[in-house]
Amino acid sequence: MLEPELEIHPKEKILRKKKNQEKIDLVKAILLDIFFVFYSILVLQRAIYFKVILDLRELPFAWSEIVLILFISAIIGTIWGYSRTSLGTKIMGLSRETKFAKLSAEIFAWTLFNLTFIAGWLVTKISLIDLFSSEGIEGANRIFHALFTPEFGIFDDALFAIIETIYLALIATLLSIPPTLVLSFLTARNLMKDNVIAFSIYYILRIVLNFVRSIEPLIWAIIFSVWVGIGPYAGMIALLVHTIAANAKLYSEAIESIEEGPVDAIEATGANKLQVIWYAVVPQIVLPFLSFTIYRWDINVRMATVIGLVGGGGIGTMLMQYQGLAQWHEVGLIVIMIAIVVWIMDYISAKIREAIY
Amino acid sequence: MMSSNVLVEVNDLHKVYPSGTHALKGVSLNVYEGEFLVVIGLSGSGKTTLLKCINRLEEPTAGTVKFLGKDITHIKGKELREVRTQIGMVFQQFNLIKRMNVLNNVLAGKLGYMKTLPSILGNFPPQCIEEAMKNLDIVGIREYAYERADKLSGGQQQRVAIARSLMQSPKLLLADEPVASLDPATSNSIMQYFEKVNKELGVTVVCNLHFLSLVRRYASRVIALKSGEIVFEGLPHEIDEAWFKKIYGEEAEEVEIR
Description:
The structure holds two protein chains of two kinds.
Chain A: H1 2-53, H2 63-82, H3 87-91, H4 99-123, H5 128-132, H6 134-148, H7 155-186, H8 189-192, H9 196-214, H10 217-227, H11 232-256, H12 261-268, H13 273-308, H14 314-324, H15 328-356
Helix pairs in contact in A: 1-2, 1-4, 6-15, 7-11, 7-13, 7-14, 7-15, 9-11, 10-11, 10-13, 11-13, 12-13, 13-14, 13-15, 14-15
Chain B: E1 6-16, E2 22-32, E3 36-40, H1 47-54, E4 62-67, E5 70-71, H2 77-85, E6 87-90, H3 102-107, H4 116-120, H5 126-138, H6 154-166, E7 172-176, H7 184-200, E8 204-208, H8 212-218, E9 221-226, E10 229-234, H9 241-248
Parallel strand pairs in B: 3-8, 3-9, 6-7, 7-8
Antiparallel strand pairs in B: 1-2, 1-4, 4-5, 9-10
Helix pairs in contact in B: 5-6, 6-7
């Protein structure tokens, strides 16, 4: 009874799936094409026509125009994509094997790249005149001279500040370890795929962590300096939050890439989930975890100097104060000290990581 | 000599993987207590899947698997773990915990009988450790008990894996191509340990093998799988050249391993 059904079922299922997938891919390809055409018309109009040909200072803007361009590109993109000769279909692997299809996709891709480069050049306001004007050179001279004749009068203060920075980074890294461990197991696909509840936990946590990670520590520092007040505490929490999110991803990827063999072997002894994790998973990930964590301390020392700029405490805050007062000799000393500490941290963390493996 | 008690009863077993591969297509067989059953067949013929369906590392798509008369096809959780404690398994890649020492690897075989907390703390009772040493004696590597597992040679690692499975006091030992990554001389000595486990400890063995010379020497009964179906069932000496070509294809030629 079961056999004939089983015999046909899987194959037909796969065929049906393939056809559906192709339909979805074609829609994606057409959407891509519409976007490409829309983008290139916009760049042509605003960067090339307004800026270069008409040399306008203020670019005119009207929603009706944008909508019109979108409409035109929707028509072009749909036709182009449906004929399977477009860049979008090429990217999705659906394009025809004709010479015309190949040529049209390649030329369009090349045009897109050039348009983007030109637009980028214009947006950045690149100007050789500014770089080599006598006024500019003089300013640069002044700053470089001051930076290379550092003021050692503030050495003690700077030393204390940079030690504060190192400790701040260390505490953020240490405090991050327990929550990161828990989160990394909960966001490792191979451990969480077994049932629906586990998989939804996995999925939701992934989204939250991705969101937290996409916000830079600098911005977290701004948020926490308002929340708990300006100072090293705010900086520490900012680093802590970002470290947890960033390392949970690295840790969980290490868990996902373990050898499956030992897991099978321990499961086969009748061990329960926790025992399997402790015996077959943990020994395989201890070293990568240690290595990531030490590297993260190194990264956090660098970041601590940056988040100091927005009130996260330590050497960064001090740098900000002297820069605000335009006391460039003092700034020079601080910059040199940061460079030395970062270099030493980099060296130490590399050595420790080498020694572990 | 051979008792006729059925240990494992597999009936019309199908396994379809999510990728669509139809690995087993209606396999039925019995494993009798005390026998040394060898499963042969090309790579991809479903041998590994069959073993993994018996100790339920894989869940069958259709059909039934009975162990000691009990249907275990779809059991879960504690019930499944209890059945697994009675079935040892040895793998081609040994699958030891590389960074642990040999003794702890062997002790891991007892996990199914232990409470979670003491096992995680590594708090094994003295009689467990004694038993582990005794099992290391059986496979002749007691002196390596405190070496790290990955310091051992392939053959020694496989002996540790056998000792680990013996910790379960298994009724059945599954061996998935246990000598496929070993040299010929080592292969033979490993097979002798399986023979010892089978004859002296009375553990039923189901073993996937590649080399016919090993099959003739150690098997008490042979089953051949070809693309997920049983094409031969009989005694080792009954596999003549005609059968061999049927199982492995017209192009195949037998290689000797001594």
